[in-house]
Design brief:
The chain contains four helices and six strands, in the order ααββββββαα. 28% of the residues lie in helices and 35% in strands. A hairpin with a 6-residue loop joins β2 and β3 (47-55).
Length: 130
C-alpha cells in the first residue's frame, strides 16, 4: 500500500499528498519504473520538476529544476515489510536550498530535526488508511 502511494502518478496523487497542489501537478513523461513530473504547493508557491525512479524497495526523486531547491538533490525512500504486517518507511533527504523560501523551509527541516517532514509524511500515510 505504501509502495503504491509513493509510485502513484495519476489523479489520486494529489489526494494522497495533502501538500501537493492539484493545479501544479503534471506528469511530463512516464515509463514503467520512472516518472518525470512537475509538482508544487499552492500556499508557498514552491514547485519542482522531479525525476522519480523506482525498483523495490527504493524510490529516488531527483530535482531537475525547482524554485526552492538546487538541481541534483534527492529524496530516497525505502519501503520494507514490518514484522507483523505493515511497512517501515525510511526517508533520506539530500537537498540544497535555493532562494529565500527554500532556505526557510530547509531551515525548518533542520531545527525540527526532521519532525516537520515526518509530520507531513504521517499525514500522507493516514490518507492511505482512509
Amino acid at each position: 500500500m505504501v509502495w503504491d502511494a509513493l509510485t502513484e502518478f495519476g489523479p489520486r496523487r494529489a489526494e494522497l499528498w495533502p501538500d501537493l497542489s492539484p493545479s501544479s501537478f503534471k506528469v511530463l513523461e512516464r515509463g514503467e519504473t520512472w516518472a518525470r513530473v512537475r509538482e508544487g504547493t499552492a500556499g508557498l508557491g514552491i514547485w519542482s520538476i522531479e525525476r522519480y525512479e523506482w525498483k523495490e524497495p527504493v524510490i529516488t526523486a531527483t530535482v531537475e529544476e525547482a524554485n526552492a531547491a538546487q538541481a541534483g538533490g534527492t529524496w530516497r525512500m525505502e519501503v520494507r515489510p514490518r514484522n507483523g504486517g505493515g511497512s517501515v518507511l525510511t526517508i533520506n533527504m539530500d537537498r540544497r536550498a535555493k532562494g529565500i523560501v527554500g532556505h526557510l523551509i530547509h531551515g525548518l527541516f533542520q531545527i525540527t530535526n526532521g519532525r516537520f517532514l515526518a509530520g507531513r509524511t504521517r499525514r500522507m500515510l493516514s490518507n492511505l488508511r482512509g
